[in-house]
Fold:
Amino acid sequence: MDYFYCPPEKISTNSLLIDGDEFAHLVHVMRKKEGDEIGVVNGRGTAYRVRLGVLKKHMAHAEILGTMPRHNEPSVDVTLAVGVLKNPSKFDFLIEKATEIGVKHFVPLLTHRTIPGHAKVDRWQKLTLAAMKQCGRSFWPTVSKLMTLDELLTQRDRFDLNCIAHEDPAGSTHIRKLITKKYGSILILLGPEGGFDDAEVQRCLELGFTHIYLGERRLRTETAAVVTAGFCLLSEGA
Structure:
């Protein structure tokens, strides 16, 4: 089934309205017609099976045939906080693939070794929308503003588990052991090219973060992000 996005304010008990860019994609790209059945997601965790009704010039009315709460959403909320990468296409890849896996929130980080001093939040938010629809999720992941590591650390109490990925195996927990316990929410920290510096790692450990280790092979940041999120999310069959 093809999925399209409709914001909650355009959804009523029995029907919904698709307009704007989604209408253009629906009619001009996907060539949908009156009477076709499609999937619609509200970006808040609910999906709908709908039948297209009247197609006007700039909008489509649809009848809701079925409602699916938490459609294709994992039971754990994962926030991925990653140092912004020098190569924009690699961070694009990270955002897209981690959305497909099930990450719920993204935080672009400004760390000691981060080279770019800005974040393309609008672009990344559009990528999460496209990836959400492509993989059939119902929650539209959020991308926060660029944060310093210190700013993010003040929010650590919001999560059931805080962890930081680092290549030094000393004192670490392998990611395979970490996922044996169920958590409601997880914060994962990953550094940019070159990783976190020693002071950043030490500060996180002093605040109670779990040091996770991904193995002997040195992974690029975008690879490590997808691998770590995958262990936390796909292990539960989400």
User: Anything to note?
Assistant: The first strand starts at residue 3 and ends at 5.
